[in-house]
Amino acid sequence: MTERQLFLGGYVLFPSGHYAGAWRHPYSTRDWLGRDFLHQTARTLEAAKFDLAFIPETVSHNPDFTRHGHSNSIKHDPAQVAGQIAAVTTHLGVGVTLSTSFNEPYNLARTLLSLDHLSGGRVAWNVIQSHGPGNYLNFPHVEELSGAELYDRGDEYVEAVLALWRAWEADALVQDQESGLFADPARITVPDYRGKYLAVRGPLNLPPSPQTHPVIIQAGDSQRGRTFGARWGDVIFAIERTRADMQAKKDDLKGKARAAGRDADRIRLFAAVQPIIGETKEIALARRDFLRTRITPESGVRFFSHFARVDLAGVDLDARYVDVIEERATDGQTESRAIVQLDELLGARRDRVTIAEAGVEFSTSELTPQVVGTGEEIAEELAAYFTSGAADGFLITPTHFPGSFEEFGRAVVPHLQRLGVFRTEYTGATLRENLGLA
Ligand SMILES: Cc1cc2nc3c(=O)[nH]c(=O)nc-3n(C[C@H](O)[C@H](O)[C@H](O)COP(=O)(O)O)c2cc1C
């Protein structure tokens, strides 16, 4: 067995995540809203020894996305979802996404530290700064920030949350029944955090959790976003189309982490991948083709339009992709990640495909790389990716719920274990321990 072991996260974004047709997949549940689906997903991920279930967040409503069952068409409160997942597991971590834009530091810090206690130290916070006007409609009192300022405020926010989480010394909760000293105020700091953008006095009425406080996840991609992630992230999530791009991102993040005075080897980079598993390679390829048939042309074009930020309303679905882009996209938009990387993916087909075909192609994985084959082939590919050093682990994007995770657990994980790159048992009790960050 090699010493370095890879990490696994499960992307619990339903009814559809990066694959826009997930809710229409014949094997997918229809019972999205009750706790049974969450419990089943949690137990499946834990049986497969995943490090964490990852719960994304959004607070905006997009009628197009709702119409087509895209990501965020239905959305529970992430902390409630995390509570359900933690309640039926003992080792699985839970990554909870909460926005710095619309929560007071005190509320957010307490919600997550409570969850961290109640789960025995298995919670992570995915720190997001919300951008785009749609997000701000429900919070008219919040000033919309963008670019660097958004992340400058984010820096303050994380400082404030960490100050709240670290206010109690480890031994402040004395519980001396003889003397009558329950907790020692002398061992509790009042953070009284005051920044340019926000202030909070604190402390919370909670001591440190079994892993001290939640692990921090970040997924910024812009230069400023990466600087932020490199400063604060224990775990970084990234979507890159190729291994070389992921390696470049890792090098960049490590450089930025060192510049921030951190030990760069303590950052865990998770590469998002979409496994498509078959009993044979041919079956896996057929399943990949099948996925496209579950996305209607209209739905694919709406999904792509959103990410490319190009208005495609009323477009002729049979028009050539290149003509539509030339006619509708501005210069800035043609340089967007969605268009540049979709162009790369289409390659020589770019000039031939219709806008509908391009939209469906984009919507099968939202540019997340697909790994297609038997369980053994997928395990070998992931092991090679990991061994190359380009990533420390993988964020598994499902194509249907909860079957994708079940199949991955049964068909891929045993081969990762045989190859010596993945645990056969959890080694730690807390998420921080399992990630080798205790
Ligand atoms: C795997 C992954 C998961 C993400 N989850 C969320 C999420 O739940 N909510 C959200 O608003 N943004 C989410 N994001 C977006 C990032 O937080 C970030 O805004 C994005 O990568 C763009 O980077 P930038 O802010 O530096 O421009 C996610 C990104 C990635 C790669």
Strand content: 5-15%
Helix proportion of residues, in percent? 40-55%
CATH class of the largest domain: Alpha Beta
Strand order of the largest sheet: 1-2-3-4-9-10-11-13
How far the N terminus sits from the C terminus, by CA atoms, comes to 22 Å
When the domains are counted, the total is 2
Low-pLDDT stretches: none
Q: CATH superfamily name of the largest domain? A: Luciferase-like domain
**CATH fold annotation of the largest domain:** TIM Barrel
Radius of gyration: 22 Å
Could you report the average pLDDT, rounded to the nearest whole number? 96
CATH architecture of the largest domain: Alpha-Beta Barrel
Please render the helix and strand layout as text.
Elements: E1 7-11, H1 35-47, E2 52-55, H2 63-68, H3 78-87, E3 93-99, H4 105-118, E4 123-128, H5 133-136, H6 147-165, E5 173-176, E6 181-183, E7 193-194, E8 199-200, E9 215-218, H7 223-232, E10 235-238, H8 243-259, E11 268-277, H9 281-293, H10 297-308, H11 321-328, H12 331-334, H13 337-346, H14 355-363, E12 370-373, H15 375-387, E13 393-396, H16 403-418, H17 431-434
Parallel strand pairs: 1-2, 1-13, 2-3, 3-4, 4-9, 9-10, 10-11, 11-12, 11-13
Antiparallel strand pairs: 5-6, 7-8
Helix pairs in contact: 1-3, 3-4, 4-6, 6-7, 7-8, 10-14, 15-16
Bound molecules: flavin mononucleotide (FMN).
Flavin mononucleotide is lined by residues 56-58, 97, 128, 130, 219-222, 225, 237-239, 272, 395.
Verbal overview:
The protein has two domains: 7-279 and 366-434, TIM Barrel, CATH 3.20.20.30; 296-363, no CATH class. The chain is globular. With 438 residues, it is α/β, with parallel strands linked by helices. The two termini are 22 Å apart. Helix 1 crosses helix 3, helix 6 (147-165) runs parallel beside helix 7 and helix 10 (297-308) packs across helix 14 (355-363). It has 17 helices and 13 strands. The mean pLDDT is 96. It has helices spanning 35-47, 63-68, 78-87, 105-118, 133-136, 147-165, 223-232, 243-259, 281-293, 297-308, 321-328, 331-334, 337-346, 355-363, 375-387, 403-418, 431-434; strands at 7-11, 52-55, 93-99, 123-128, 173-176, 181-183, 193-194, 199-200, 215-218, 235-238, 268-277, 370-373, 393-396. Strands 1-2-3-4-9-10-11-13 form an eight-stranded parallel beta barrel, surrounded by seven helices. Bound molecules: flavin mononucleotide. Flavin mononucleotide binds at residues 56-58, 97, 128, 130, 219-222, 225, 237-239, 272, 395.
